[in-house]
Design goal:
With about 425 residues, the chain is α+β, with helices and mostly antiparallel strands. Helices cover about 50% and strands about 10% of the residues. The chain is elongated, with a radius of gyration of 34 Å.
């Protein structure tokens, strides 16, 4: 530099020009533009920054970004550490790591499309709800005929809490038939034809059936030849508010209650008609942000694992073996030896992911439905929406850009200081 400074300047000038055009000028212009209104004509001072922290949608994006910065890098680093340590001794460790790292080869756009399908509400389409509903239905019985209801003027009244009860007490002299409607014909296409119950001594009998004749015709309230039985419906006999007998309709829709049902009212519990369990609303307002973070972890846990595994490979095995010889358990070796030795690598992974999630955009934009996009919005997405997505307020968008810069700077400073410390060693 002292002998021929012009040579150094000549080599550095192209880099300086590029840096100025692509980094310094945009930052400077964004800061300047953030003090003006949407049109860029009137100076508004800090009004745009005030709007960020006063408008509910803008404030939600700030809060969600903080959640992302705290939760996503921490969990991704922890998963990467677990995968790296647990696969260290596996025979097929390389193949396992390849599978875990493979999502990194997929673009954010593709990951967003994949997980938009995974989180579909309908179990027939969404993988997450298909698994969730399958587990739920394993331990909880589904209703017999969801959506069914009594035919009007059939002598059945709806009770509080759901279900239906006969208006009058029943007896064993005549069958008590309970006609229902509201069941799609295709749902009973394979059902048996409704049977006609006969009086049976002291028992209370009857039939529960779909009071609908395909093609029309038939008599309301009467069991016609083509009408279908509703099997599996629970029938309860109630006296003085207590259930004294229960029965379930057979394949032909008939039921028989013991003598205790004489003089009781019959009740069809609400459980017979409850809508089937449809899973979790993953993309609803309450779970949309955790759901999107889950898709991010699926993609970036492999990145953390590869870096941590590389650091683990450089840890001297003699130190680990010495700790085991001294009587340390595997958990103690991991907690007091492995993790401290991996601390620099863990710091790199954590800081890198923190910077990465601050600019997260495409995952949120693609996965979150428009109805809840404001609930899942983050700073980078809100910047786009207010600037180009219909808001057309580039003053406010520039304020978001400056806020993002201010959030990234401390992390960058910490990273630079750490790198300098490592170089001194």
């Amino acid at each position: 530099m002292r002998a021929r400074p012009w040579v150094a300047v000549s080599f550095l000038l192209p880099a300086f020009l590029l840096l100025g055009a692509l980094v310094v000028y945009p930052i400077g212009y964004s800061i300047w533009r953030s003090f003006f209104d949407a049109a860029g004509d009137s100076f508004v001072g800090l009004a745009n920054y005030v709007e960020i922290f006063s408008d509910p949608d803008n404030l939600t994006s700030v809060q969600n970004t903080l959640i992302w910065v705290v939760v996503a890098p921490s969990i991704a680093t922890l998963l990467g550490l677990m995968f790296a340590v647990l696969t260290d001794r596996l025979r097929f460790a390389t193949a396992f790591k390849l599978i875990i790292f493979m999502p990194m080869a997929i673009s954010m756009l593709a990951v967003g499309i994949i997980f938009r399908l995974v989180y579909e509400q309908e179990p027939d389409r969404g993988v997450a709800n298909a698994v969730w509903v399958g587990v739920h239905d394993t331990f909880a019985e589904s209703s017999a005929w969801p959506g069914a209801r009594p035919r009007p003027n059939a002598g059945l009244e709806e009770v509080k809490g759901g279900g239906f009860v006969t208006a009058d007490a029943v007896g064993s002299a005549d069958p008590t038939n309970l006609p229902l409607v509201g069941v799609p014909p295709q749902d009973v296409a394979q059902a048996a034809t409704a049977g006609t119950a006969q009086p049976s001594g002291d028992e209370v009998t009857g039939t529960v059936w779909l009071d609908f004749t395909p093609g029309g015709g038939g008599e309301a309230g009467a069991i016609d030849p083509k009408e279908k039985a509703l099997a599996g419906i629970a029938v309860e006999a109630v006296k003085d508010g207590e259930v004294v007998a229960t029965a379930t309709t057979g394949e032909d829709g008939t039921y028989a209650l013991p003598a205790e049902a004489e003089g009781a009212t019959l009740r069809l519990p609400a459980a017979n008609f409850a809508e089937p369990y449809n899973g979790v609303d993953w993309l609803g307002p309450a779970l949309v942000t955790p759901a999107i973070i889950g898709s991010y972890l699926w993609m970036w846990a492999g990145f953390a694992m590869v870096l941590i595994a590389a650091g683990l490979a450089s840890v001297p095995r003699e130190i680990l073996e010495a700790a085991r010889v001294d009587g340390a358990s595997e958990w103690q070796v991991f907690r007091k030896v492995t993790v401290p030795l991996l601390a620099p690598v863990l710091g790199v992974v954590l800081v890198t992911l923190m910077i990465n999630v601050m600019k997260i955009f495409d995952l949120v934009y693609i996965i979150a439905p428009s109805a809840v996009q404001s609930d899942a919005s983050v700073l980078a997405l809100q910047l786009y929406l207010v600037s180009f997505g219909g808001g057309a307020n580039q003053g406010l968008g520039s304020a978001f850009a400056v806020l993002l810069l201010l959030l990234v700077l401390p992390v960058m400073v910490i990273n630079i200081r750490r790198l300098r410390r490592e170089n001194r060693r």
